[in-house]
Amino acid sequence: MSLFYHFKRYFCGPEPDCRLFASSWALERAKSNVAKHFAVVAVFEQMERSMRKMERVLPTLLAGVSNSFNATSYQGTKYSTMRKEVQRRTKKLLHRSLESEAYKMWKKPLSSEAEARLKKMLHVEYEFYNYVKGLL
After folding, report:
1. CB contact at 8 A, 55 and 64
2. What is the pLDDT of residues 93-130, one digit of tens each?
3. Which of 42, 97, 113, 132 could bond to 50 as cystine, CB 3.0-4.6 Å?
4. Helix, strand, coil % (nearest 5) of the chain?
5. How far is CA 18 from CA 65, 83, 128, in A?
6. DSSP secondary structure letter of residue 69
């Protein structure tokens, strides 16, 4: 279950209650710590928004960082060509692996019961993620 404790390890703190799985106390503590001690928490899937927020919150340190990020994010011809090649190779490998018998044998959709159990187990983690994302 250690994968489920990541936000608590970084944002809740070292208290024993922070290690409790699906703890609403740990969730509130993590939210409070983010509000009090972090200028910005970046979200990888929202990197451009995260960088714009960093620029707004810390302008003297990070002015122009989103422009630099955008300039090197595959928009130049060198990066566009590399990106297209990586996408082509990835698609080819993915297609081969999806067609493999091993993948077909193990590929089973989650039952609605399993999906409901996962959502219930991870509700605290999702709530924290959505809280941080909402701060951007």
Report:
1. yes
2. 666 665 666 556 666 777 889 888 888 888 888 899 89
3. 42
4. 75, 0, 25
5. 34, 41, 13
6. H
Token output for 95: 């297609």
DSSP-assigned states of every residue in 75-86: -SHHHHHHHHHH
CA distances from 17 to 9, 12, 63, 115, 122 (A): 11, 9, 39, 27, 17
Q: If you write DSSP's letter for every residue of 19-36 in order, what string do you get? A: GSTT-HHHHHHHHHHHHH
Terminal Cα distance for the chain, rounded: 28
What is the model's pTM? 0.63
Question: What average pLDDT does this structure show over 32-55?
Answer: 87
DSSP symbols for 84-99? HHHHHHHHHHHHHHHH
Structure confidence at residue 3 (pLDDT):
45
Which residues fall within 8 angstroms of residue 17, CB to CB, at 6 or more apart? Answer: 23, 25, 26, 29
